[in-house]
Inverse folding.
């Protein structure tokens, strides 16, 4: 008997028949898989497109920075004498720098000791005070001054350390000095002599005001080792003096406490290295602009290549890109091309208004090319105009009105600034001349509240002039760590002996209050106190919001997002602020929207993902249906197989009976 795959003994191959039928029934699954593969390809295509757009957006953001177009370069004829770096605000020109003296820090050396760890003195508690200042007059020989005067720096509060039995060694004194940040650093040098260990004090900062006076109160042995007054007893030997750098710029004499000087020429930092003469040439730098324009061109062309690959049709292979006919891709390509082909209107009549005016042109393939020579010419002759072509920016006609931010919602145009109230500082003015003698524990404690932050400071005892007392009070307040961390600072001035204390902040947050045993002697019993006032005025004819010196344009006005700082002492009309929108800024705004979470690409990919989800649901439903269909088919053909087997058995039985009948008939 033949072996079959049926349940019965018929020749029906149930598994094969059901398998073939199910192949036909499952054809819709193949269609779903094909469609999902198409959607996945579109998602990948949009991912590639998003990456190309993000690269272009980054390149346009770089060009949308006016500081890029204000770059300067400085070159030096002899960098071993002086080097220079230039930044925005520098002035082009040639500057002859003649260095006659370099700034240096003071070095003081103590007498040698036989051991670093042996006790010095009896261990009696000893106070060592360090006062920075300037040495003038007299003469210097073998590290010792004769007939000199020491003038303390009133802006620097003297600092002290305590030496006792726990640290009265050379190493202990060194460590205590370094831990206290007293204005000098300490080290121990072994000079190889019989008493080789010598304490060396090096000024923390260079400059003539970095000389130090060391006062010692307590143990006589420590006093004889460290007490040092340039105008009196000098137990330390000065091996290098504190001095300023001395140089001239185009014949103008300059003195600086540091060899790095940034206050002589706007936007230019000089670094002095040795005595001699060098010429510094400052010119506009076009290298950074050119490099970034080239990067922009590449990013745009890369995007065009990506769009071309995704949306084109190949007639030879009769195949199209994944996004062929995609409306989102077509619209985006058109928007970017139209924007970069447009002109801006916020420049002068002779200024470049289009990309082609500075050497960027479109080819027949839709890609950009750059004429570097034309760009260089525009940057050399009209750098500000080129900046306005690319970058969105703001400028004020009043030099004391500074644009802080122009935001992204302000409309390009010109806005008049009118000020009705100027910002003021919180101020306290004494009502009598200040007492010039400060006595420890008597009138040396001053409690202040600056801009809402309170602290108590201790004034150094001594007899002052009105000017040095003002400097001492200012240094003591501004050196308080609590006030420093809160950003609260003051200026203290004097006029005819009367002190005035003013917060550095402006506006309603600016306030001053004093108390303590020193307050009456410094400011009298009833000083005049005034709180700060916020600036008030309008921008573009619409009332603005004032905070300190800052005016913020009204929300929903044409200038929304424009923020300016108003200094100076004039009210009324304060000039105009002009907002310009460059092509890079416009392109950045467009691409930001495209790339946003609710932008065109996100909306398209969300739709595709939703379609893929729907396909998954369809596949799940169809798979459940196929299970039911297969079960039905298998039941039907199994029943048929069983029936056919039964019929075959009946046929065989009947055949046997007929054969038997025929046999008996023959026998008769």
């Amino acid at each position: 008997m033949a072996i079959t795959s049926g349940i019965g003994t018929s020749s029906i191959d149930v598994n094969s028949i059901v398998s073939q039928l199910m192949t036909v029934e499952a054809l819709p699954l193949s269609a779903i898989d094909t469609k999902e593969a198409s959607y996945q390809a579109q998602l990948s295509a949009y991912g590639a497109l998003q990456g190309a757009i993000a690269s272009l957006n980054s390149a346009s953001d770089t060009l949308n920075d006016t500081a890029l177009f204000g770059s300067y370069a400085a070159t030096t004829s002899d960098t071993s004498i002086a080097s220079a770096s230039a930044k925005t605000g520098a002035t082009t020109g040639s500057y002859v720098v003649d260095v006659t003296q370099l700034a240096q820090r003071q070095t003081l050396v103590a007498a040698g000791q036989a051991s670093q760890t042996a006790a010095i003195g009896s261990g009696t508690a000893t106070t060592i005070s360090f006062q920075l200042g300037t040495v003038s007059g007299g003469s210097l020989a073998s590290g010792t001054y004769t007939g000199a005067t020491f003038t303390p720096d009133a802006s620097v509060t003297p600092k002290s350390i305590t030496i006792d039995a726990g640290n009265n060694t050379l190493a202990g004194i060194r460590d205590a000095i370094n831990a206290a940040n007293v204005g000098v650093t300490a080290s121990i040098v072994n000079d190889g002599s019989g008493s080789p260990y010598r304490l060396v004090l090096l000024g923390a900062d260079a400059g003539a005001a970095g000389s130090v006076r060391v006062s010692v109160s307590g143990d006589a042995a420590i006093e004889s080792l460290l007490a040092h007054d340039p105008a009196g007893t000098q137990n330390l030997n000065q091996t290098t003096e504190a001095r300023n750098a001395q140089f001239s710029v185009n014949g103008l004499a300059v003195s600086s406490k540091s060899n790095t000087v940034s206050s002589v020429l706007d936007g230019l930092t000089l670094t002095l290295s040795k005595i001699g003469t060098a010429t510094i040439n400052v010119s506009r730098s076009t290298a950074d602009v050119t490099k970034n324009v080239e990067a922009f061109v590449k990013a745009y062309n890369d995007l065009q290549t990506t769009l071309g690959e995704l949306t084109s049709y190949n007639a030879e292979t009769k195949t199209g890109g994944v996004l062929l006919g995609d409306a989102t891709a077509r619209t985006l390509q058109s928007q970017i091309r139209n924007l970069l082909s447009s002109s801006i209107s916020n420049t002068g009549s002779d200024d470049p208004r289009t990309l082609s005016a500075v050497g960027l042109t479109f080819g027949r393939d839709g890609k950009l090319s750059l004429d570097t020579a034309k760009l260089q010419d525009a940057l050399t002759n009209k750098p500000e105009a080129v900046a306005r072509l690319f970058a969105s920016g703001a400028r004020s006609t009043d030099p004391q009105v500074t644009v802080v931010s122009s935001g992204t919602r302000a409309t390009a145009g010109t806005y008049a600034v009118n000020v009705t109230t100027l910002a003021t500082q919180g101020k306290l003015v004494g009502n009598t001349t200040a007492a010039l003698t400060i006595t420890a524990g008597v009138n040396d404690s001053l409690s202040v509240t600056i801009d809402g932050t309170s602290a108590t400071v201790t004034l150094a005892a001594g007899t002052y002039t009105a000017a040095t007392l003002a400097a001492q009070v200012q240094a003591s307040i501004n050196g308080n760590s609590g006030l420093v961390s809160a950003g609260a600072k003051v200026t203290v001035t004097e006029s005819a002996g009367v002190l005035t204390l003013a917060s550095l902040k402006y506006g309603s947050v600016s306030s001053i209050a004093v108390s303590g045993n020193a307050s009456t002697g410094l400011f009298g019993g009833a000083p005049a106190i005034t709180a700060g006032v916020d600036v008030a005025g309008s921008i573009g004819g619409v009332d603005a919001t004032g905070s300190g010196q800052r005016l913020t344009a009204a929300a929903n006005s044409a200038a929304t997002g424009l923020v300016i700082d108003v200094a100076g002492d004039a009210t009324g009309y304060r000039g105009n602020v002009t907002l310009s929108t460059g092509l890079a800024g416009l392109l950045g705004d467009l691409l930001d929207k495209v790339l946003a979470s609710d932008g065109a690409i996100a909306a398209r990919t969300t739709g595709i993902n939703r379609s893929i989800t729907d396909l998954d649901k369809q596949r799940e439903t169809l798979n459940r249906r196929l299970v039911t269909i297969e079960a039905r088919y298998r039941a039907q053909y199994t029943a048929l197989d069983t029936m056919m087997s039964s019929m075959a058995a009946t046929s065989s039985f009947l055949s046997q009976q007929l054969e038997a009948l025929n046999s008996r008939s023959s026998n008769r």
DSSP finds 13 helices and 40 strands in the chain. The chain has a mean pLDDT of 89. The longest strand covers residues 126-136.
